Every structure is written in structure tokens, then in C-alpha cells.
Give the backbone structure.
Amino acid sequence: MDATDSPFSSIRGDSGAPRRLAAEFARVAALHPQSATISSPRFHKAGRNRLTRTIDAVLMFIRKYLPPLHWLGVRSLAVCLYLYIRAVAATASTIAAGAYRWPEVAPGSVLAFWHGSAPSLLVAFAADKPEVPVKLMVSRDPRGDCVAVFCRWLGFEPVRGDAEHGGWSALIEIASAVNQGAVALIAPDGGGPPCVARAGVAILASAAHAAIIPLGATCRPSVLERRKWDEQRNPVPYARVAVFCGEPIHFPRFEDAAAIEASRAELQKALERASQQAWDLVRNR
């Protein structure tokens, strides 16, 4: 890999944690093979229906050419989402179980969850926030602008990046914060395909020498968005919200592509188990 062409070459500053992390990410990225799983950019083109792609294109046009209108819409929608999350959190009951009991999570760890469970986690976070700073990766697309605003209002510390734009730089920033005791909240399937873990979270945890805590989160009753790529379940007022924290996973320094894929597969299974445990909790209470 040519350093001048590397996505990590933009990291500036003296030697230190960010430079070390950038070098480690660059090393592992060179090891990591092309996955047989459809990538997020390809999924957005092939896995989303025409209406969704049209809406995305319109939003991108408005942000580029009509920024005042875009930011007015962003803040208006963010207010609605914020009020919705607060209203549900004020009435919902949270069920916590597992290796940790939410919101008690280990500082300097990475919390991994399926993207479709985000609404349930947001409600749990609004109802009872961890004491440590929580870094959250948010897409740089126009939809992400709204998510970043209202997540900041909830108390998260959003870092902008996704598979298409600035994803590695965002991971480096988050890994640096984890080294300093923050917690990262990341969906390994962010951007799609749903419930298919990609290697980025495992690479982040390995580079930052941090444990991954697989989270399962769900709610009942809920409104299921069948037309969304991740089929999110949105809790309603007085719902039961379940959060299950799986056993911490520690990944050593990756030396080859086989180790990266084995870690990705291990994370996949851990998230599937945690999600099933969360379902069992919400059904049996």
C-alpha cells in the first residue's frame, strides 16, 4: 500500500496514540481481503428500493444546493425524534441482564450492536445513561445530519463517518477516545446488509486493545419498519425495552487475513446470541 494513497495518510500530529492507531489500522487494512459479503455501497445501490434511493438523492441535492432549507429540516426532525425518545424513555420499563447490567459498562470498551436495535438502545440510553463518555459513529449522508444532532442532545458524542466517507478516520478518532477511557457504540452492520458483521469493529478493538461487549437490544410492543433496510423496531410509550450484555471478547493483534475473518465470525455469533437473549428477556417478562 502506497502511503500517499492510504486513507490513513491524512492523520497529522506528532507521534502518539492517533499516529500509532493509524499505522496499526493501515497495517491491518493491508492484510484484510475483499469480503465476499456485499459491501455497504453496493448494498445501497442494489438492496434499497427505488423510492428510498430517490429520497436519498433528493436529500443530497437539498443539502448541497439549499443548505438553509436542509438544516431547518434537520433540526425540526431532530426535535421530533428527541421528544419521541424522551417520551418513550419516561414511560418504558428497561430490563437489563448479562455480563454487565445496563448502564454499567466497562470504561475503555467497544459496545457492538445490530443497527436495527438502535431505537431500543437510544431509549435505554435516554432512560439511564452510562457515566463514561459514549462515542457513536454516525453516517456522513444527509440522514446522518439529523441523527448526529439529536444524538448529541441525548448526550452521545457523535463521530461522523461511514463505509463510503471517512470511515477509517472515524474509527481512529473513536479508538483514540477508547484508549482514554471512553466507550464506543458501533453497529458492525451499519449501512447494510443487516445483521452481517463486518471486520471494522474487531479491527478497532484489536488496535485499541479494548474488549468488545456484544449488545442485544429489543422492545415490545413496537412498530416494525418493514420497508427499512434494517427493519428497525421502534418502541412505543410504556413498552418493555430489554438490553443484554454478552461476555466481553478480546482480540489479539491480527497477523493475517484468516485471523481477521475468524474474529469477524466470532463477533457475528456473539451478536446473534446477545440478540436472542434480549428477545427472550422481553418475551418472558
Summary: The longest helix spans residues 257-284.
